Amino acid sequence: MTEQLAGVRYVVEDVQAAVDFYTKHLGFTVRLNAAPGFADVVRGPLRLLLSGPASSGYRATPADAAVAGRNRIHLTFDDLDAEIDRLRAAGLSFRTEVVSGPGGRQILVADPAGNLIELFQPAVR
């Protein structure tokens, strides 16, 4: 049986910048890099399809969906504060402050195209 991954497509303007962001800062590895058109990166069971202007996934996106939405991928970390410190030291800025709730704590960062990524630490039960 082939490996089962959950796939999410993010439309980006610069595929290589997106590959660099996800691999350098968020622990993704490259499965396929066909920049400038397309790249396929993975982290655990998440397959992130990065589609640039030359790809069919990008061209199939309706014009009224030209900006990043409120949807986001969700990445879990054991120590959210350490992750925030590491990313700030690397020069990244966050779109929100840390928000706490009954399920845990989260903060949002955006990739170079403005797509949101939720960094999450589950509450201790």
UniProtKB/TrEMBL annotation:
Annotated PANTHER family: GLYOXALASE/BLEOMYCIN RESISTANCE PROTEIN/DIOXYGENASE, GLYOXALASE_BLEOMYCIN RESISTANCE PROTEIN_DIOXYGENASE
Protein's name according to its UniProt entry: VOC family protein
Gene3D superfamilies from the UniProt entry: 2,3-Dihydroxybiphenyl 1,2-Dioxygenase, domain 1 (3.10.180.10)
Ranges that cross the membrane: none
SUPFAM superfamilies in UniProt: Glyoxalase/Bleomycin resistance protein/Dihydroxybiphenyl dioxygenase
Signal peptide: none
Lineage of the organism: Bacteria, Bacillati, Actinomycetota, Actinomycetes, Pseudonocardiales
One Pfam family hit: Glyoxalase
Organism encoding this protein: Amycolatopsis alkalitolerans
Domain VOC per the UniProt entry, residue ranges: 4-122
